[in-house]
Amino acid sequence: MILLAVRWYLRFGLSYRDLEELLAERGIEVDHVTLYRWVQRFTPLIAEAARPRRHAVGDRWFVDETYVKVNGSWRYVYRAVDQHGQVIDVLVAARRDTPAARRFFARALRTHQSPEEVTTDKAPALALAVEATVPEARHNTERYANNPVESDHARLKARLRPMRRLKRDRSAAVIIAGHASSRTSYTVTTSWAPTPGHISASPPPSTS
Questions:
Q1: Distance (Å, whole) CA 186 – CA 192
Q2: Is 135 left (phi over 0), alpha (psi -120 to 50) or beta?
Q3: Which of 16, 46, 86, 192 sits between 20 and 30 A of 136, alpha carbons compared?
Q4: What CA dihedral angle connects 2, 153, 162 and 6, to 10 degrees?
Q5: Where along the chain do its domains lie?
Q6: How many whole angstroms separate alpha carbon 189 and alpha carbon 181?
Q7: What are 132-184's pLDDT values in tens digits?
Q8: If pLDDT is split at 50, 70 and 90, which confidence band does 201 have?
């Protein structure tokens, strides 16, 4: 039930109170604050469990940054999708600069093979990051070539809109990363169960 609730929240345009109401209609009484704690606690576990079930990442990456407001301050979200529309990785950064772009590429390359082609806009920070981290890849900056990832930003923004406001950087990072993995997590929520000791690092949040 916890896994299903977390997946619903990540995948669909629901607020915590919406989710609380949906569960109550099914005879499950859980406070919206507890739902928040569940999302923060279990989203990284679901994302990790979903990783082996993902399709192999393509060799063409479309990289761009968008922005979200966290507790009144702007944060920049670096995102990449492949030619099949699969989200490769995300990174929430306080600044839109070359170090942040390089951190994003370094993080993505830790778990995925180097792409043959990287498409970005003409932002200097992204160009320098591509040159430093994947110099062997073809760098495409043609006009409109980056539309796949720019269109995909809209899916993220649509998910964040019902939340109204993000209050913490960590919460924003968890939810944005969880949204990216939620497209492949259906099989995880229906078949995955944590092994003994898997979640024993801290006690589970109490329910209402």
A1: 10
A2: alpha
A3: 86
A4: 0
A5: 2-53+184-191, 60-167
A6: 12
A7: 999 999 999 999 999 999 988 888 888 787 776 778 888 888 888 887 777 65
A8: very low
Give me the phi and psi of 185, to 5 degrees please. Answer: -95, 5
Distances (CA, A) of 7 to 47, 50, 68, 79, 103: 10, 12, 21, 20, 28
Is 177 in a helix, a strand, or coil?
Answer: helix
- List the structure tokens of 165: 């406001």
Quote the strand ranges of the chain, DSSP E.
60-70, 73-82, 87-93, 117-119, 138-140
Contacts of 21 (CB under 8 A, 6+ apart): none
3-state SS class at 11: helix
Name the CATH superfamily, with its identifier, for domain 60-167: Ribonuclease H-like superfamily/Ribonuclease H (3.30.420.10)
CA 40 to chain CA centroid, Å, is 13
Place of tokens 């792409």: 115
pLDDT above 50 for 12: yes
Q: Residues for the chain: how many in total?
A: 208
The residue to which tokens 């949040």 are assigned: 205
How far is residue 174 CA from its own chain's centroid? Answer: 7
Cα dihedral sign, 28-31-32-38: negative
Question: How far apart (Å, rounded) are the C-alpha atoms in residues 33 and 51?
Answer: 28
Among residues 198, 203, 197, 173, which one has the least CA distance to residue 43? 173
